[in-house]
Amino acid sequence: MPRRCSARIALLVATLWTAGSVAAATRVLFVGNSFFYGALSSVEHYRPTSVQDLNGTGYGGVPALFKRLTEEVGMDAEVALEAVPGVGFDEHYQHRLDRLVGVWDTVVMSSYSTLDREHPGDPTALLHDTPLLAHFFLVANPAVHIYLNATWTRADQTYLPTGHWYGKSVAAMAEDVYAGYAQAQAAAPLIRDVIPTGSAWTRAIHAGIADANPYDGIDPGTIDLWASDHYHASNAGYYLEALVIFGAVTGHDPLRLGAHELVAADLGIESAVALALQQVAHDELIARHAATP
Asked: 77-83 and 106-109: which strand pairing?
C-alpha cells in the first residue's frame, strides 16, 4: 500500500474515534452501482427512509430489500448504501472515500457489471482496486466482514451481436464475472466470500422458473428476471439478488422467509414465485458452500 494512500485513509478514518461507542445494531454497507440501487424497477424507491443513502439521492434499492428481510427474522441491522450508476470500485476509492467513513460490521461490494466497462470480461482493474477498497474498511474495523457480489448475465451482452458474450450460453457471463471476483478475493484474502448472485440467476433459468432470452418473448409459466433494457433487473431479479445476499451475509436460510414474505408482497411478486426464488437462493448457497474447499 503506497504511503500517501495509507495516510489518506488514516486521515479519513480518524474522525471515527470521536464518535463514541459503536451502536449495538449490526452496521451493513452496500457499495456499488445501479445493480444495488435497483435501476428501472420499483425497487429503486422501495422504503428509502429505512436505509441511509450516503449520496443523498434517496434510493432504497436492494439494501432496503435486505433491511426488510433482516427485520422479518428479528435482526437489528442499520443499513447504508453508496451507489453510483455505471461505475466500478475505482470510482468509490478515488472519489468517495469521505462518504464511506464508518465502523462497518459488514460491507457488500459490487463493481461494474462486465468487470470493466472498456474491456468487458477483463478482471485486471478489479484485481487492482478490490484490495485498495477492502483495506480502507479494514483500517476502520479489522473485524469487518467484506463480501463481493458477483452479478448476473446481461441479456444484451449475450444475445445482441454487439455483446461481449454474444453466441455463448446464458450462463457464460455470470461464470466469467464470478471467476473475476474469485480472483479478486484471492488478491485480497481478508475478503470473506464471493456472493453467487449471478449463479443464482442462472440456476433460476435452468430450473425453468425464469426465461432464458427476453428478446424472443417470455416463455409461458416463466418470469423475466431482467428489466425492459435486458440489462438491469426486474423486481423479481432484484428480489433474487436480495435473497442471495441475505442468506450469504446473515447465515439465515432464505427458505425460512416463506410464502407470505413481506418484500415479495410489497413488490407484487406472487407467493408461488417468491417461494421458487427462495428455493433457488437456498440451493445456490448450499451448492456454493459445498464447492468451497
From this structure: unpaired
